[in-house]
Design brief:
The complex is a heterotrimer of chains A (904), B (110) and C (492).
Chain A: H1 2-27, H2 31-47, H3 50-54, E1 59-66, E2 71-77, H4 79-102, H5 110-128, H6 132-151, H7 158-186, H8 191-196, H9 198-203, H10 207-221, H11 230-233, H12 239-249, H13 252-265, H14 269-292, H15 296-317, H16 320-351, H17 367-381, H18 387-400, H19 408-435, H20 449-464, H21 473-483, H22 500-517, H23 519-528, H24 535-554, H25 562-582, H26 596-614, H27 618-638, H28 642-663, H29 675-699, H30 707-720, H31 725-733, H32 735-756, H33 772-796, H34 804-820, H35 834-853, E3 863-865, E4 871-873, H36 874-898
Antiparallel strand pairs in A: 1-2, 3-4
Helix pairs in contact in A: 1-2, 1-5, 2-4, 4-5, 4-12, 4-16, 4-20, 4-21, 5-6, 6-7, 7-10, 10-13, 12-16, 13-15, 14-15, 14-19, 15-16, 15-19, 16-17, 16-18, 16-20, 16-21, 17-19, 17-20, 18-19, 18-22, 19-22, 25-29, 26-27, 27-28, 28-34, 30-31, 31-32, 32-35, 32-36, 33-34, 34-36, 35-36
Chain B: H1 2-18, H2 23-43, H3 66-95
Helix pairs in contact in B: 1-2, 2-3
Chain C: H1 8-22, H2 27-53, E1 58-61, E2 72-75, H3 77-100, H4 107-123, H5 127-145, H6 154-181, H7 186-189, H8 192-195, H9 197-214, H10 222-226, H11 232-256, H12 265-285, H13 289-310, H14 313-344, H15 355-358, H16 360-374, H17 380-394, H18 398-423, H19 446-464, H20 467-481, H21 484-490
Antiparallel strand pairs in C: 1-2
Helix pairs in contact in C: 1-2, 1-4, 2-3, 2-4, 3-4, 3-11, 3-14, 3-19, 3-20, 4-5, 4-11, 5-6, 5-11, 6-9, 9-11, 11-13, 11-14, 12-13, 12-18, 13-14, 13-17, 13-18, 14-16, 14-17, 14-19, 14-20, 16-18, 16-19, 17-18, 17-19
The chains are: A mainly alpha (904), B mainly alpha (110), C mainly alpha (492).
Chain lengths: 904, 110, 492
């Protein structure tokens, strides 16, 4: 039953946030009242658990969420969680009731209400989370919501919001790191189990890292030095946001985290010392800064920082008393700080100013407001009988009895008193501004009681709960037991008798009054101190990161390809070096490697390449490319690859033809390169050549015959029906490769079409045919001959060198030649190459697909029976498709490249 | 051995050319590199056999490994297609007036 | 479910592309065909995935030839997962292109051919065939990149030449592998590189080429230089497919041929960490939305390689989960960026600005995937990073975990940079397009934002309901750490 209520509470918050914009549509800014009622209802839901929880039996609910990571969606309502829930929902209700009068009439507030309600839900989730990952999730969600709420302040909120997001986001990542480490140490992400595994955690060498990361996360969230600078900046947000998030709840998440993990780390020297040091330094510095501020909101922000510092330090002390004090003071602080923010907001609205110098003697014009402000100010300053006093007293008690290091009590106590003195000083200032002094602004009047009501409730609660603090005892005690299982929690009451703490309070009040009396001199002295702030450092880190990034980014903005191309080459050279170093004994070379004729070719090749490298004019380069192609063709012939040689030769001719077409648009000679670039390129080239040569030498020819090659040689005739083994591999055994390759050609053709003009454009009118008087007659003779050769090659390909490729390349030569000869009439009129490409691709893929349809594997060969009794093998059809596609590419190239001149 | 040297020469020449300015030079460089890879593929026959792989024309044991030859054919055709495309790109950038080669210093981002 | 269906993702798009080339002017037909084919493959991929997660590896020996000699297409959980998410991405890209009215009459056929290459690459178990399919994938990409004027200048040149060089190195690597081992079948090659230095060296050449294609540091500079020059729908297509094939191939080769060799994992780890850091630094330094998003692709590849370097089931599962959710998140971001460019005049930070007020829907469409990328809960990116960091810590790679966390923080910084530059702040005065009339202060058409919002949904869903994808990813990871089933299905 209890489980259901817990779940219902959380889901209700979610639902409420979704409903909020709708409510705002209908009720305008008054939707806040309904939302406040919603918050209270949820609090009641949770409050129904109170009997069980306070008796020491927490309510838990759990579902698996990501079993693969061991993460579950678990919730747990224990004493500590209840306390924080009360804070979140109680203060939330007050803020929601405050909003309708604070927000301007008219205007759209649905967004703000939505975010505020959602935030409440997220905070609730954070304190209820019983799985560490879930905790992180809610933690980060609150970070994001805080960012959004600060951003809602408009353009001046952009920078503070970003800063807040970055700092608290960093803390969130630290928390994530801690959670992952804990998960690895304990093997689970369940919070209860982890907290119970104290010995295991502390024994692990990772424990200091975990503790450090948790502390960082808490420091960022609770704005401790040096992460404190984001909080004052966040004050640009509207007052309800400042009051809710940045005083009562978001910043308390860090405190919650530290309290929870005190179960594991309390008493550990590193933990205690760090927390005490950071906390007390923050407390003093924050209070000093607050004393310097004139803007009430900024003053309150720094005050929050300072008070949180006291809390952190108290948690650091780690004794039962100190922890209890921290818990009580958390509650008290939330109460009076929220009140103060709300009242400052009211005063700002009414008086038009938040400057403390301009406010004095408000008592006469706004008596109720002033009284409430005064009450809250007194609670802040720690004057009896308000709850602020009770809380501070217990803090003093905790500090005085500290035992983290020898003399801890004195040291911490002294610092705490110092911070409290400063706190008292600015607290009294607020009070003074409210009550005393001449009334500077006479035309103010009391705001409506509806506007004041939420603040009044909180202020009066602070007054009443001081003497009546015993009401809170059951809740407090349960919370303390949760944090420190097995401890004996103290009783809170207003009067403990004459104790050292009372003395400390007295000293505080005395010195504080002194500071107040001499406030002018104090002000003067403080203004001489440097402004504390990690903000300068943060901003500097921020800009230098961006500058570093710009340097890295610049490496990717060069315009010429060589830097991009040099890198993979360098990688190859590196691999070559590694290979040279690591390859041990290599197997012996199998078979005969070189023949005399090879060397002759090699010499020719070297000459050709050398010539190419040094070529100045494009024409000579083109010629030398052709020569190189011929040499390589001969090489292949000698190596026993006649099909390859034939194809390469034809491809060379075609490439040369296409180059000839493109040549018209190119400059006569290559651009002249720069000297240093040439040298570097040369070095890299030589190294790459060496690496390549070495690789070939070391890794080829040492294997012996491969079973795959043998299989093909043996089975080509019996199973594939062809004597040209290479051709059978291409169109039968490994036809998928060929299918891919013709798709490449088709895509290339499409690319050319996109680059150089329309799709189904027929032959253009302007043809470049300077040689037509010479070549024309020759063409008339040669065209049918080449066509015949093409067909011949196609048909014989399966058994002799030839095949679809070579045949279509021949046909392509004919087409190109036709254009050079300027006789389009003799070549068939194409309606654009599109249909050719489509037909080719359809044939090839279709043949394969037909096999699938016939129940055979893709691209299996089969026979197509013809009406006349003959049958056609599917491989011939496949080859035909290849033919069509290659021809299509050639036609595309020729029609597009040959028919333009280079006028723009 | 000769294959290794041939590949080395072609790679050296090809790499040198692709690191020079000008798309035309780069294309020539890629042609050379393509030759180099093809020679490497043919040399990947494990035993240095040199008979043409045509069944019925000689001893099976002396025929070259047909698989790398098929690879080379596929590679030749693919690089042929892409070379044609590259040349069209050269032409297209001439037409739109963009310089065929850019100076070697880093330019502004597009 | 038989292996025969594995030919469909390759055959059908090619057939459809051929048909569409023959009928270039019918835009409606193009869209319908493209969507129908891709949708069909998406469903098929889902079915295959369901079968594969159970542990079976579907295979198809092309041409009916014996395994080990023939080319085999094989679908284990990893391949099936990649197939499915790629189909989803192609679908989104086609939809976006149609809505954004980009792409001419050849866009759909080229995309279909490209997608056939991608699916083939994911399914093939043959190294040379992988080379061919990568070319099938890349050649249309050349055409698509240089489709418009922006891609025809330096960016197009750089893209084509770098790609070509990488392809040549790839081919050389395959040649060397064949030369050392006598086979290019992945099943036959299993474990070869782990035991033989020569084979490892040959495979390293292949991995070098794949690393260049996947934009691993220091071979990454081409990506931020060239991708932003493409039209937005094309960049969406590229971002989810091209580099991912490279990463997939690296993982597959390392898992099968190297058998996860422990002695070389430090190389991958170094590459992963460098890629993450340099990638994110470059991201922060860029000045326009699409350039930022292009550089950040480099950084994210590093995360995936980190999972590979860990080579545990948890690490690989994390890497694969990351990969899948990241493809969708990146696409969503690019769609948002593209919409900002077309509707509001350019993506340079600072002009436009204040878009959060003008166009709240677009701001949401951007913020959700951006938060996922930055690793904010409860989105998919957070879960992905959590699982990766957890896997790293579990293998005592604390440095890697720390760097991954720090890079995540910097990613947040980068997203904030875009947010502040483009969305936050006061609304800028109406910006004037060069040579045109000023933009009206209005929001983008909802149709333009819809694909982005649709793609942002997975970021939320995969974050809150991550377990199904994790099951699939773990199955895929299992298939990689113990490759026996795959090797047996594919080899002789």
């Amino acid at each position: 039953m209890g489980v259901v209520l817990v779940v219902a509470a959380l889901s209700s918050m979610g639902l409420l946030s979704l409903v909020a914009p709708l409510l705002e549509r209908f009720l305008g800014r008054n939707a806040g009242y309904l939302l406040a009622a919603g918050f209270i209802a949820v609090a009641v839901l949770l409050g129904l658990q109170a009997p069980t929880v306070l008796a020491g039996q927490p309510e838990t609910a759990s579902w698996p969420w990501i079993p693969a990571l061991g993460v579950s969606f678990s919730l747990r309502l224990d004493g500590l969680a209840s306390l924080f829930c009360l804070l979140v929902l109680g203060v939330g209700a007050l803020i929601m009731a405050y909003c309708p009068r604070y927000l301007p009439h008219g205007g759209r507030h649905g967004y703000i209400y939505f975010l505020l309600t959602l935030f409440g839900g997220a905070m609730l989730g954070l304190v209820l989370a019983a799985d560490l990952v879930l905790l992180v999730v809610f933690w980060e969600i609150t970070t994001v919501l805080s960012f959004l709420l600060i951003s809602a302040a408009g353009s001046q909120g952009a920078a503070p919001a970003a800063r807040a997001l970055l700092v608290t986001g960093m803390g969130g990542l630290a928390l994530l790191g801690a959670v992952v480490l804990l998960a690895v140490i304990t093997g689970t992400t369940d919070l209860t189990s982890v907290l119970a595994a104290r010995q295991q955690v502390l024994a692990s060498p990772l424990a200091p890292a975990v503790a450090a990361l948790i502390m960082i996360a808490a420091f960022t969230k609770s704005a401790q030095v040096p992460f404190n600078f984001w909080l004052p900046g966040a004050m640009v947000a509207i007052t309800p946001v400042s009051a809710y998030l940045h005083a009562a709840t978001l910043v308390k998440a860090g405190i919650y985290l530290l309290l929870r993990f005190s179960t594991l780390f309390a008493g550990q020297p590193g933990w205690s010392l760090t927390l005490i040091a950071v906390g007390l330094i923050t407390a003093v510095l924050g209070a000093a800064q607050a004393l310097r501020e004139h803007d009430l909101k900024a003053l309150l922000a720094y005050s929050t920082v300072s008070q949180l510092g006291l809390l952190v330090a108290a948690i650091g002390v780690g004794t039962t008393v100190a922890l209890a004090a921290a818990i009580l003071y958390t509650f008290a602080h939330a109460l009076f700080k929220a009140t103060l923010f709300m009242l400052v907001g009211i005063i700002d609205r009414e008086a038009g100013s938040r400057d403390i110098r301009k406010l004095s003697g408000l008592m006469r014009v706004m008596p109720v407001t002033a009284t409430l402000t005064g009450l809250a100010g007194l609670s802040l300053a720690g004057i009896p009988p308000l709850i602020g006093f009770v809380g501070k007293e217990s803090l003093f008690q905790g500090f005085a009895r500290a035992s983290a290091f020898p003399g801890a009590g004195v040291v911490t106590g002294a610092f705490a008193v110092l911070a409290s003195v400063l706190t008292f000083a600015y607290g009294i200032r607020i009070f003074y501004g409210a009550f005393a002094g001449p009334t500077l602004q006479r035309r103010l009047y009391e705001p409506s009681w509806v506007f004041l009501a939420p603040a009044a409730v909180a202020a009066v609660a602070g007054l009443v709960l001081g003497p009546a603090v015993a009401i809170l005892n059951p809740l407090m005690r349960e919370a303390i037991v949760n944090v420190e299982p097995g401890s004996v929690p103290p009783h809170f009451k207003l009067w403990h008798g004459l104790t050292p703490e009372l003395l400390m309070s007295a000293v505080t009040i005395a010195c504080g009054l002194g500071l107040f009396v001499f406030r002018d001199r104090v002000d003067h002295g403080l203004s001489r101190l440097p402004h504390l702030g990690g903000q300068a450092l943060f901003d500097r880190l921020y800009t230098s990161t961006f500058r570093l990034g710009a340097v890295v980014a610049r490496s990717a903005h060069v315009s010429s390809p060589w830097t991009y191309l040099a890198r993979p080459v360098a990688g190859l050279v590196l691999l070559g070096g590694v290979g040279a170093g690591t390859l041990g004994r290599l197997p012996a070379t199998a078979g005969q490697r070189s023949q005399p004729l090879d060397w002759a070719l090699l010499v020719l090749l070297a000459a050709a390449v050398a010539g190419l490298v040094r070529a100045r004019s494009v024409l000579s380069a083109a010629a030398l490319v052709g020569v190189t192609g011929l040499i390589v063709t001969t090489w292949f012939l000698l190596a026993g690859a006649p099909d390859v040689a034939l194809t390469l030769l034809l491809a060379e001719v075609l490439t040369a033809m296409v180059v000839a077409f493109v040549l018209r648009g190119l400059p006569r000679s290559f651009p002249r390169p720069r000297r240093p670039g040439t040298f570097a390129a040369g070095v890299l080239a030589v190294l790459a050549g060496l690496a390549a040569a070495g690789g070939v030498l070391a890794l080829t020819g040492r294997r012996g015959v491969s079973p795959t090659g043998e299989f093909f040689l043996r089975e080509a005739l019996p199973q594939a029906g062809g004597r040209n083994v290479v051709n059978t591999i291409l169109v039968d055994f490994r036809a998928l490769d060929t299918l891919g390759e013709v798709s490449v050609l088709g895509a290339a053709a499409m690319g050319i079409m996109l680059l150089l003009g329309g799709l189904d454009r027929a032959d253009s009118e302007r043809l470049v045919a300077p040689y037509r008087f010479v070549l024309g007659p020759a063409y008339r003779v040669l065209a049918p001959v080449t066509a015949a050769v093409s067909v011949y090659l196609f048909v014989r390909g399966h058994n002799e060198p030839g095949g679809g490729f070579s045949a279509s390349l021949v046909a392509g030569i004919a087409t190109g030649f036709g254009y050079l000869a300027g006789r389009p009439g003799t070549a068939p009129r194409w309606r654009g190459p599109g249909p050719l490409i489509a037909a080719g691709l359809l044939t090839c893929a279709g043949v394969g697909f037909a096999a699938t349809m016939a129940g055979k594997p893709f691209l299996a060969h089969f026979s197509v029976p013809l009406p006349s009794g003959l049958s056609v093998s599917s491989t011939i059809l496949f080859d035909l498709g290849v033919y069509l596609l290659v021809l299509g590419l050639m036609v595309t190239a020729v029609t597009r490249l040959a028919s333009e001149d280079d006028q723009r | 051995m000769t294959a290794a040297i041939a590949v080395g020469i072609l790679v050296a020449g090809g790499v040198f050319l692709i690191l020079r300015p000008g798309l035309a030079r780069i294309t020539v460089g890629f042609i050379l590199l393509g030759h180099a890879v093809n020679i490497l593929l043919i040399a990947a026959d494990g035993a240095g056999r040199r008979g043409a792989p045509l069944t019925g024309e000689g001893d099976l044991a002396r025929m070259a490994d047909p698989l790398p030859q098929a690879f080379v054919l596929t590679a030749i055709v693919i690089s042929f297609g892409i070379t044609v495309y590259l040349l069209a790109l050269v032409r297209a950038s001439r037409r739109t007036g963009k310089p065929d080669s850019d100076p070697d210093d880093p330019g502004p981002s597009q | 479910m038989s292996g025969a269906v594995l030919s469909l993702p390759v055959a059908v798009p090619l057939l459809a592309a051929a048909m569409l080339v023959a009928m270039p002017r019918r835009r409606r037909l193009h869209l319908v065909t493209g969507v129908a084919v891709t949708g069909g493959i998406l469903l098929l991929g889902g079915e295959v995935l369901a079968t594969a997660v159970g542990g079976t590896v579907l295979t198809l020996d092309i041409g009916g030839w014996p395994p080990g000699f023939a080319i085999t297409l094989a679908a284990d959980a990893f391949s099936a997962l990649m197939l499915t998410v790629s189909a989803l991405l192609v679908l989104a890209s086609l939809a976006y292109a149609a809505v954004a009215d980009e792409g001419g009459p050849l866009f759909t056929p080229l995309t279909l051919i490209l997608s056939a290459g991608v699916y083939g690459a994911f399914l093939t178990a043959d190294l040379f065939n992988l080379f061919v399919f990568v070319e099938v994938m890349l050649t249309p990409s050349y055409a698509l990149l240089t489709m418009t004027g922006g891609g025809r200048g330096a960016a197009g040149r750089i893209y084509v030449t770098v790609s070509l060089l990488a392809s040549m190195i790839f081919l050389a690597g395959v040649a060397l592998v064949y030369s050392v081992t006598g086979t290019v079948n992945l099943g036959e090659l299993a474990g070869a590189a782990r035991h033989s230095t020569a084979a490892a060296l040959a495979c390293s050449v292949v991995l070098l080429a794949l690393a260049a294609k996947a934009a691993v540091v220091p071979l990454h500079t081409w990506l931020p230089r060239t991708y932003p020059a493409a039209p937005a729908p094309v960049m969406v297509l590229f971002s989810g497919l091209l580099t991912k094939v490279g990463v997939y191939a690296i993982i597959r080769v390392y898992a099968v041929v190297f058998a996860g060799a422990p002695q070389y994992r430090w190389v991958i780890m170094t590459a992963a960490l460098l890629t993450m850091v340099i990638g994110i630094l470059g991201t922060i330094g860029e000045q326009t939305m699409r350039e930022i998003l292009a550089f950040d692709m480099v950084s994210q590849i590093g995360y995936i390689l980190l999972g590979l370097a860990l080579f545990s089931t948890a690490g690989l599962a994390a890497a694969i989960f990351y990969l899948v959710q990241y493809v969708l998140v990146q696409a969503a971001l690019l769609v948002a960026a593209g919409t900002v460019e077309t509707s509001h005049g350019g993506g340079t930070l600072g002009k436009p600005s204040g878009l959060a007020h003008r166009d709240p829907l677009l701001a949401v469409a951007f913020m959700i995937p951006a938060s996922s990328l930055a690793g904010l809960p409860p989105l998919s990116g957070f879960i992905a990073k959590l699982s990766l960091i957890q896997a790293a810590v579990a293998k005592n790679s604390y440095l890697a975990a720390a760097i991954a966390t720090a890079v995540s923080f910097l990613t947040l910084l980068a997203m904030i940079k875009i947010w502040r530059g483009v969305f936050a702040g006061r609304e800028a005065a109406a910006t004037a397009r060069p040579g045109g009339r000023p933009h009206a202060l209005r929001a983008a058409r909802p149709a333009l934002i819809a694909p982005g919002l649709a793609l942002a949904v997975p970021a939320i869903v995969l974050g809150i309901w991550a377990q199904p994808l994790f099951t699939a990813a773990t199955a895929a990871a299992d298939g990689l750490t113990s490759t026996a089933a795959y090797v047996q299905a594919v080899g002789r």
